[in-house]
Amino acid sequence: MGLFTKDIKTMEDMFVHGLQDIYYAEHQITKALPKMIEKATNRDLSAGLKSHLEETNTQIERLEKVFQKLGKEPKAADCPAIDGLIKEADTITAEIDDNAVLDAAIVAGAQAVEHYEIARYGTLIAWAEELGHDDVVRFLTTNLNEEKAANTKLNTVALRKGVNKKAVA
Fold first, then answer.
1. Is residue 136 one of the residues assigned to a domain?
2. Is residue 3, in this structure, part of any structural domain at all?
3. Each residue of 54-66: pLDDT tens digit?
4. Which residues form a coiled coil (predicted)?
């Protein structure tokens, strides 16, 4: 099902589809992160990605609670956006031989994914509030806050921990 198919007739349908989209995305991220961790050579980057992999698994559990509270079975809907972001990151990192440049590329790919998740969770929270699903807002907000924190950690690794500076040198 695409975003604007005839299966989506109401705001509720669109909200559920958005949940299915991010549910799929989080699952794809749990498959992509181990590859990024394996490629990363910067200690801080590797540790941050490992930590976020654990968070992502917890985020999936929260999404399952959201589906449960809505009386829906947890179900994933294909998300071409996350597939594209992951494929792009894989393609770029596969072409890089210099470890310092590779770490900078991993940070960039991870941040693109984080920004997608931040946008998706922000929208889902707004829709949940509008639809009166106050009982799921806190789960979505917790996930959003973790995504924002992960993005901040990636910024720190890139800027303060020297990943970008080493890539330029």
1. yes
2. no
3. 999 999 999 999 9
4. 46-73
